[in-house]
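Submission sheet (multi-component)
Chains listed below:
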Amino acid sequence: MAKKILLKDIAKKANVSVATVSYVLSKGSDSGISPKVSEKIKKIAKALNYRPNQIAKSLQSGKSYTIGLIVADISNPFFANIARIIEDEAKKHNYTVVFGSSDENETKSSDLITFLVNRQVDGFIIAPAENTQEQIKSLKKQNIPFVLIDRYFPEIDTNYVAINNHKATFDATKKLLASGHNAIGLIAYESELHHMKERIRGYREAIENKGLETHDNYIKKVKFSNLVDDINAKVDELLISENPVSAILYTTNTLAIHGLKRIDALKLKVPKDVSVIVFDAAEAFDFYYCPLTYVKQPLMEIGKNAVTILLDQIANPNHELSKMTLETTLVNRESSN
Amino acid sequence: MAKKILLKDIAKKANVSVATVSYVLSKGSDSGISPKVSEKIKKIAKALNYRPNQIAKSLQSGKSYTIGLIVADISNPFFANIARIIEDEAKKHNYTVVFGSSDENETKSSDLITFLVNRQVDGFIIAPAENTQEQIKSLKKQNIPFVLIDRYFPEIDTNYVAINNHKATFDATKKLLASGHNAIGLIAYESELHHMKERIRGYREAIENKGLETHDNYIKKVKFSNLVDDINAKVDELLISENPVSAILYTTNTLAIHGLKRIDALKLKVPKDVSVIVFDAAEAFDFYYCPLTYVKQPLMEIGKNAVTILLDQIANPNHELSKMTLETTLVNRESSN
DNA sequence: TTGAAAGCGATACCAT
DNA sequence: ATGGTATCGCTTTCAA
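Outcome: structure written.
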């Protein structure tokens, strides 16, 4: 068992105190220790392959240099991609990231936060699940730095990095209207989350803005708990009825994947039988026979800004909050014709 | 600023010593403290919402209850899915997982390992990049528990959870041969990694096993560093030549995604013009017009076993090593006809 | 310029 | 059944 090298070991070998070694190794050139001693210590440290015990440092400093990332599901490509960006950005600042998946579940989210708070993460980046307002407020009360991503609660004053959801679906719907569709279905989640409501509002306003009326039965909300079956049923309702829609706007990646499969199952063709716009550019869509028009989210900016804001908040707890709303881009392709 | 509650605070309120509080809170019923005092302490702890400082515990115990996960890229669906499984499994045992992406790069991998070792992770789960043998040996030497997944180095005695790569491609190739193909192309990575060599060997032996000869120019190895261009070029070589192949076996998920796109770009149809078998069932493939025959990896077993073996190794450092080879399944669909 | 020693917040040995 | 205190490895104040 290769013995762990401690400051003490180096001190002994160098015939100096532990304090001196600590100075040399942790401060820069302004350690206040003479160059001669400094060099000697550095050489010994290197020779012994000294690795500071980060845990001890953390206990002393009260900082773990770790950030907790909580998303709905780390295996969802949207979150997996953001995770990768956050990881890279965090590492640049010598931060480590630990992650947890809430599965959009309030209790899991709460357990996860507690778990990571106990582990003394310095802060959180969270894509909050529904009904987690109290958890978020609790973090605020405990003065634990965090920034919300993808979603946020307008009634709670927090840092967040989100997109302009209203404009995203407004533009998408407008595009479908411009293509001549006036019976447009919307597939959304049954959710109280603000971003979802905003996406629905964007859809509505685009239609009303054109002097048309919105039909509530064109707006379908599926339950996260029964995803696939529910999507299938709702897509059927939209497409197989007396007044079928001629276009569908899917408000998330996952909804689109399953919803498109259902369209296929119904033997309908995009865009001949039904036009479509989806959210995000999942790799899955690359193989779809019809190039899909989609709402492109600025993942890189979301991830990078989230880290920057969080680290800033950790360094300056009293710094004012950052509320960042980024714009999406509608990438026009054939499915929305 | 809500003050952090310490054992000391509880002790003061309960008029007992810090030690007593510690006993009550950390041991179970066998704390040796009288029920009356125990109850009082527990009540106060709950009332104050006491959260033990995990960092302090870690320093004392020498255990961080954290495992480091190192993969090529956390945003790759194969690894993202495994990450999720590992996360769930780890949490069951009260472990936290921190992750890092090596990008198949030796130096990044090394930096990452150092970074996480300093943070005192209790062990690693690693999908090792090429040429990282020394890093792995170094972990062994330092007696840091770890288990390799997906790939491993046969010349180094370690824990690992991998698949039977030889059989996977052997069966896949056999299937193509049975469908009447005798000019079968293979797209692999240019890599010294054992799993890649085994996949190539499986392909070769299936062909030779049928009394046919293998053609080296049917075996294409692409560079990770120049992925897309290289795949395109190699697919072209296989399909647009004097003796084109009639089938292609892609040895990874990513290779398949780009390789299939290239086939599309060449206006060739699967399986009419060229048959195909791919590795893994990426969500992306769901939208491919032709149902793809694929090698199915037991992700759940890989992830769960990796965690189990690692935690066992952490608990019993002298326990013998576990070398686990799992079988894949060839899921037959239309692309291999 | 250097070092002794007091923490950081828990745990656990050894007394009592 | 309790509690005093050394300890985990490092940082930092204060003195020398």
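Remark: Residues 16-20, 23, 32-34, 37, 56, 58-62 of chain A lie near DNA strand C (CB under 10 Å from a C1').
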